[in-house]
Each structure stands twice: as structure tokens, then as C-alpha cells.
Amino acid sequence: MKTVYAILVAAVLVGCASIQPARVQVGDTCYRCHRSIGDPKLAGEIIDQLNAPFPFRTTGCLAKYLKANPDLKLRAVFVTDFRTGHMLLAEDAWFVPATLTQAGGKDGKKTESDYFAFRSRADAMAVKDAQAAPLRWSQVLADAQP
């Protein structure tokens, strides 16, 4: 009987060890800015201590939120690989500064600085500005202005 309990406990621990992100979809609301998520390939997500997911419109929005709330207890921080659309841990990603354009502003368009995230450095290098090296998550967080 002890063996059965040991196997059961081990199975529960293995199941809880891997944290999976929830699927961020077009139309979800950003936890920080409360705007609608228009492109899931730019999105990010945090998973809190209770395994609750909180979506963010962009990597930049996510970084700003975390910088403004440094004492949060989180289980994981995910960003979306711009090339594949799959989520990955932010600390494993490479980031390329990007200028995003959306409706609004005086001429009908509004731009904002943000980031594209990539699983590999090679993918990031393929789209990066020739003058800028891909960044790591710690650099994105350090540059965030809450």
C-alpha cells in the first residue's frame, strides 16, 4: 500500500512541476493596460502562485507591469515566439526592439516601441535591426518604464 501512495505522490509532483501557459487569444484583455489583445504573437503571460494566468498585450506591457510590481510572487513568465506563435519562458527568449503601429493618433496611426520575442538567437538575428543586438529578458525588464 505504501508503494501505491508513493507512486501517487510522485505522479502528482511530476504533474505539478511543469507549468503550462494558458492560450492567449485575439480579444483577450491585457491585465496591465486593459486594451484588447490584437496579435497573440506579441503577447505575454504571467502565472501566479495559484497557477492563475494573466495575459498581456505585448512583451513591453508585461515588462512594465513587472517592473512596477517587483514584489510579485510568480511561478512563471511567458512570452510568445513571434515566428511560431508558441509560448516560451521569458528567460529563455531573445528579444528584438520593434516599432508597432496601430490605429489612433493625429494621422490615424499611432506607433509604440515594443519587442518581438524569439526562441532562438538565430531567429532574432534574422529580423533584427543591423545596429542592435538581440536582448535577453533581464535587459528588457531593466529598460521598462512603468
Report on the structure:
With 146 residues, this protein is α+β, with helices and mostly antiparallel strands. The protein has one domain (21-143). Helices cover 27% and strands 27% of the residues. The protein has 4 helices and 6 strands; from the N terminus they run αββαββββαα. The protein has helices at 2-17, 59-68, 121-127, 137-143, and strands at 44-48, 53-56, 74-80, 87-89, 94-103, 109-118. The strands form 2 sheets. Strands 2-1-3-4 form a 4-stranded antiparallel beta sheet. A two-stranded antiparallel sheet has the order 5-6. A hairpin with a 5-residue loop joins strand 5 and strand 6. The longest helix is centred in the first third of the chain and has 16 residues, at 2-17. It is globular. The N and C termini lie far apart (54 Å).
